[in-house]
Amino acid sequence: MKILALDTSSSATTVALLDNEKLVAEYTINNFSTHSLKLMPMISEIFESCGWLPEDIDIFGVSLGPGSFTGLRIGVTTIKAMAQALNKQVYGVSSLDVLAYNLMYVDGIICSIIDAQRDEVYVATYKWDNNNLNQIMNPSILSVDKLKEVMYKKKEHVYFVGDVAKKLRLRIEEENCDTNMVFPPDALLLPRAYAVGKIARQHASEGKLKNLEDIVPIYMRKSHAECQYEEKQRSEK
Fold first, then answer.
1. CATH number for the 103-188 domain, one of 3.30.420.40, 3.40.190.10, 3.50.50.60, 3.40.50.2300?
2. Domain boundaries of the chain, sorted by first residue
3. 60, 76, 102, 178: which sits with the fewest CB atoms below 10 Å from its CB?
4. Is the pLDDT of residue 224 over 60?
């Protein structure tokens, strides 16, 4: 089973090719250039480098969010267009699940966090059990202060993953107090397309099929522009 997987939920753009469990190639750029400019050239280059063609792909995997509103739209639209043209199945996965796979088999709680703006984060927590990653807290939106309060109460180490973890680490360091919170190296904080492909393959093996029109971004909240528009509409009434 050959898989094309991608993630555009954060500042990074990441694309991978998998042959079943084998990672054939992975290409990540994290320099804040726009996804619309770099995604398709990255896909073309990774195919060319591996000698694969789009029609070789059996399933397509994409990160649905939460995350960057614009980035998610670009990633989901791109993968759906390719799958539709080739009459192949698309599997959408949670961006929070993808981040958790960066910390394989750690002994403790994995806390995936993604910037939700306004000093808030999208968050979900996980634990490994017998080589299986289990979600223990459903995705939600918390203020950074509330997140710290909740995680301080845990009786085991909490490992944070996600690029916004760097901001949280600085806050913890400023408080200069003992903590159960662990912050992995920066290289482990970004989403990986390999994890998208791995989860998509698992969904395929479990028969979790969805219609193409049901593969849509997971936003969890309205965009800042939508909130501003609604506020303007209320003020004009």
1. 3.30.420.40
2. 2-96+191-223, 103-188
3. 178
4. no
Token pair recorded at residue 43: 């896909």
Task: Give the residue from 34, 33, 6 showing the smallest Cα distance to 18.
Answer: 6
* Amino acid, single-letter form, for residue 218: I
Share of the chain above pLDDT 90, in %: 79
- pLDDT at residue 236, as a whole number: 54
Residue 91 — φ and ψ, nearest 5°?
-120, 120
Q: Among 112, 155, 151, 107, which residue's Cα sits nearest to residue 129?
A: 107
Mean predicted confidence (pLDDT) in 175-185: 85
**Integer-rounded Cα radius of gyration of the chain:** 18
* Total count of residues recorded for the chain: 237
pLDDT value at position 150? 93
Task: Pick the closest to residue 147 from 107, 105, 177, 116 (CA basis).
Answer: 116
Tokens of 117: 């703006």
Q: Per-residue pLDDT for 220 more than 60?
A: yes
> CB count, 10 Å around CB of 63?
35
Report whether the peptide linkage leading into residue 66 is cis, meaning its omega lies within 30 degrees of zero.
yes
Cα separation, 213 vs 205, in Å, equals: 21
Residues 6 or more apart whose Cβ sits within 8 Å of residue 73: 217
Token pair recorded at residue 236: 């004009």
Coil, strand, or helix at residue 9? coil
Provide the whole-model pTM.
0.91
- What is the CATH number that goes with domain 2-96+191-223? 3.30.420.40
pLDDT of 189 higher than 70: yes
192: phi then psi, degrees, rounded to nearest 5: -120, 135
